[in-house]
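pasting for the record
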Amino acid sequence: MEYSLRILGSGSAKPSVDRFQTCQILEMRERQFLIDCGEGAQTRLRQYNSRTSRLNHIFISHLHGDHCLGLVGLLSTFGMLGRMNDLVIHSHPLLEKILGEQIRFFAVECHFRIFFEPFNPDVSEIIYEDKAVTVRTLPLKHTVPTCGFLFEEKPLSRHINKEMVDAFNVPIAYYKDLKEGKDFITPDGEIVSNRRLTIEPSERKRMAYMSDTAYSERNLRWIEGVDLLYHESTYLSDVDKVKLKTRMHSSAAQAAQIAYMAGAKKLVLGHYSSSYKSSQPFQDEARKIFPESYAANDGDTFEF
């Protein structure tokens, strides 16, 4: 089962020759989630041969152009490719008002329905849930209302211990109950503990996306121990402190500090200012604080 984050765009607002604007595709429990959608997202998806047959939900962190202006082109392309599955866009309530008419005009040939699901960017709440995954909003500190997202597997079922279930002649029809934690009662009335017949489930996976934000410890309790943390790092620490504060972005060192305090297993950096030509200094700066830091470039895939 694949758990990975594919970087379609690692840049920030100003256009760059080497970096497209922010966009990522998350693979989790055989589902695909698109996170933010900067301009050219449809180009990167095709360039990197990213299939989107399981992509049914898009999450937009906030209403700055480099995070949402790729939607119209993406949805129009989906229509030309013959997409049939409905698509849900989770975002600030104003997005439908701002882009809805453009999407309906330019995606007129679409044979799928587009639904907008607004969320309140000021509170942390679950905005998506199915039988395997939940998505929670993480309010951030930026110049406009902004949310990150926590993608979290639901608790997994226990694994069948084949040797033991055979030894106790447990019927296959009872395996579902065993996976749910129930004990087994033999025809003679003996109670066989579930722990003798099953193996502990795999540890559930969690990925957090921290979009544009000034340094903030507000969401540490939600992201504690995440397998992968994406945290924006628009600048390096030597940037003008006034710029860092007024534009409400984070440095690579600040992102690393959040990863360290959260006890994350892996940190991915991105959303670089166009004033930087290489991502390597971001990785170097972050690793001084958090060794498992990785500077993302367009096309990179991070497994977790």
